[in-house]
Design brief:
Elements lengths: L2 E5 L16 E8 L5 E8 L8 E5 L13 H14 L2 E5 L13 H17 L5 E6 L1 H12 L5 E5 L6 H4 L2 H11 L11 H10 L2 H4 L8 E6 L7 H9 L5 E5 L10 H17 L1
Parallel strand pairs: 1-9, 4-5, 4-6, 6-7, 7-8, 8-9
Antiparallel strand pairs: 2-3, 3-5
Helix pairs in contact: 2-3
């Protein structure tokens, strides 16, 4: 059953937010393979056996913060660990932060797969994906290809990247402007590079998630990714939780109502998953 709520106040979700934050430790790490990916791993100081783990996938950098996922991602990861007791891996995808490499959609999807493998190598077996904007789209695609992923929560996800692919040279220049493509000789073929944007579309993958839990959060005032993208994605899942947050914009990750929904959803997942 599809659930769509225009949240105007604190949303009706499970979760006890009165608990004291757990002490956590944040460690800088690297995800194995090529190119090298910088990441940080947050874990409660007292970790339960078989504790749930999540991979936090960031979105596309902005002109205001070129090439670097916002510091608030690290804070967000720490909050998830402190309040929910989860293990959290937050990775900088290739071309972002201190990670090596140049952006491509196929490359970013591979980075997500490698990051999931990193969590498994650390001993995590119960893994969820949480992604914001482009990271949400990547989470959908990665979960569709990995049946062991327990569930996904996505915020302002793009259903497709057709608008980027429609003018590949303009989008490539945007990638240079925000710092995710630094090599002037990259890519070898703009056509092949841009074809990946049409090949990897969340809307084409979501059905393969099957009945695994999926939470979609989207702001009704999002001017960058229309709420219809969220509705389209939800329509292809047998039992999604679709929450449209009234008045929220593209930066829905910073909206306390959306965060409250996410926290409640994660608490339920830890119990049920």
């Amino acid at each position: 059953m599809k659930l769509e709520i225009a949240a105007t106040g604190l949303p009706p979700v499970a979760g006890d937010n009165s608990r004291r934050p757990l002490p956590v430790t944040t460690t800088e790490t690297r995800v194995g393979g090529e190119p090298h990916l910088e990441a940080f791993f947050v874990q409660p100081d007292r970790t339960a056996a078989n504790a749930p783990a999540l991979l936090l996938c960031h979105g596309f950098p902005s002109k205001q913060r070129p090439g670097i996922p916002s510091r608030s991602y690290e804070q967000f990861a720490e909050r998830l660990a402190e309040e929910q007791g989860w293990l959290v891996l937050a990775v900088s995808l290739r071309g972002c932060g201190q990670s090596e490499g140049q952006f491509s959609m196929e490359g970013w999807l591979d980075d997500v797969r490698r990051s999931v493998a990193h969590l498994r190598n650390e001993g995590s077996q119960r893994i969820w994906l949480v992604g914001s904007t482009t990271g949400g789209s990547l989470a959908i695609m990665a979960a569709a290809q990995d049946p062991e992923i327990r569930g996904i929560a996505v915020m302002a996800p793009r259903a497709d990247f057709d608008d980027w692919a429609s003018d590949p040279r303009r989008f490539l220049q945007h990638c240079r402007n925000v710092g995710v493509v630094k090599d002037e000789s990259y890519p070898d073929s703009v056509q092949q590079w841009s074809q990946q944007l049409r090949k990897h579309r969340a809307i084409d993958f979501v059905e393969s998630i099957g009945s695994r839990p999926m939470l979609i959060l989207h702001g009704t005032n999002d001017r960058q990714v229309p709420p219809d993208d969220a509705r389209q994605l939800a329509s292809l899942h047998p039992n999604p939780e679709l929450r449209l947050v009234n008045g929220a914009d593209h930066r829905i990750r910073h909206d306390p109502r959306a965060v409250a929904v996410l926290m409640g959803w994660l608490e339920q997942q830890a119990i049920e998953g």
